[in-house]
Specification:
The complex is a heterodimer of chains A (about 70) and B (about 170). Chain A is of the alpha+beta class and about 70 residues long. Chain A is built from two helices and three strands, in the order E-H-E-E-H. Chain B has about 170 residues and is an alpha+beta fold. In chain B, strand 2 and strand 3 form a beta hairpin. The chains are: A alpha+beta (about 70), B alpha+beta (about 170).
């Protein structure tokens, strides 16, 4: 399982949710709220897949945050 | 293997994780506004995995991981250097935008207002056609002949006298 922590001041909540929705079909993804962060936990059968999905999900959330003009 | 310092960079600003093939740059939020951090990090999104964080109050951290796999220390150093340069570029751009915001908005508003419609008869009736309000200290509106014609002896002596009077 790989964990990615997205700070709420840097990533729009809707962007993180959008990224989770987009990648939900590639791995098991859990989203939780922990203080200043929205935490995404990615699980897959193969570690390489977990890593790849988590990294791509991070870029996707970043792109959506910037598109929505959070910062 | 954990994080390591990167040769040529301060250890409190740039660290690298060779196993992950990543480099993390931490910058002062007072120096680099969030827009600059966003803009600089976005440049790398096509070749790196980007992760932003706030490791502590008043600081932003950008972690770049090469998509092509774990590169060597030289490539990570080049990546960090490029990110830091881009941060400076974006911060400077933000500063210029802030300083010129009023000018840009004024010019844009005037351009839009001017293109709205032709002036009405009432607008023309109230328009000031006198030349009193026209100020041209640099002589931009003067014709070439008027500006560079040979001065008469009276005008030339007058110009010299005014030049000498100046400190």
């Amino acid at each position: 399982m790989i964990e990615r922590r997205f700070h709420k001041e840097l990533y729009a909540p809707a962007a993180v949710q959008g990224a989770v929705d987009a990648f939900a079909r590639f791995a098991q993804i859990e989203l939780s709220d922990e203080g200043d962060y929205r935490v995404v936990r990615v699980s897959a059968r193969r570690p390489e897949r977990e890593r790849k999905v988590a990294q791509e999900l991070g870029n996707f959330a970043f792109g959506l945050s910037r598109k929505e003009g959070l910062a | 293997m954990g994080t390591q310092t990167l040769e040529g960079f301060p250890s409190d600003i740039v660290v690298t994780d060779p196993a992950e093939g990543s480099v993390t740059v931490t910058v002062d939020a007072a120096v680099y506004p969030l827009e600059a951090v966003y803009g600089a990090a976005y440049i790398f999104i096509d070749r790196c995995y980007v992760l932003l964080d706030r490791p502590k109050a008043g600081a932003y951290a950008v972690t770049l991981t090469e998509k092509s796999g774990a590169g060597d220390a030289a490539s990570r150093r080049a990546m960090a250097g490029e990110l830091i340069n881009e941060l400076l570029t974006q911060a400077w751009r933000q500063k210029i935008i802030e300083e010129n915001r009023v000018v840009i908005e004024t010019v844009t508003a005037q351009a839009l207002a001017g293109s709205m419609a032709e002036p009405s008869l009432d607008d023309l009736a109230s328009f000031d056609f006198s030349e009193d309000s026209f100020d041209d200290p640099l002589g931009i509106a003067m014709s070439w002949e008027e500006k560079y014609r040979k001065k008469t002896p009276t005008e030339a002596s007058g110009a010299e006298a005014s030049t000498e009077a100046k400190p």
